[in-house]
Amino acid sequence: MTRGKQKIEAQKRNAEKNQKAKGSQLEARAVALKVSCPICKAQLANQNQLADHYSSKHPKEKPPSNSE
Asked: Can you name the residues that pair with 43 across neighbouring β-strands?
């Protein structure tokens, strides 16, 4: 067990270390999600997922062709 100044310094080090590991993944998510459904605006990663999305969520509609 540490006391006093050592304890405070150890807590600061641990807080900094844990803070760097955590963080928002919104930037990575925005980069990964490139395709969006024009009907419901759902964001998907690729054309295959868009085709699967259309078959399950919009069965009466035809998925758009590959525009990439």
From this structure: 36
Rg (CA), the chain: 23
Residue 62 and residue 50 in contact, taking contact as beta carbons nearer than 8 Å: no
- What token pair was written down for 62? 């035809």
Distance CA 52, CA 25 (A): 25
Find out whether 37 and 52 touch, Cβ atoms under 8 Å: no
The residues facing 44 across adjacent strands are 35
pLDDT digits (tens, 9 = 90+) for 16-39: 888 765 556 777 777 778 888 999
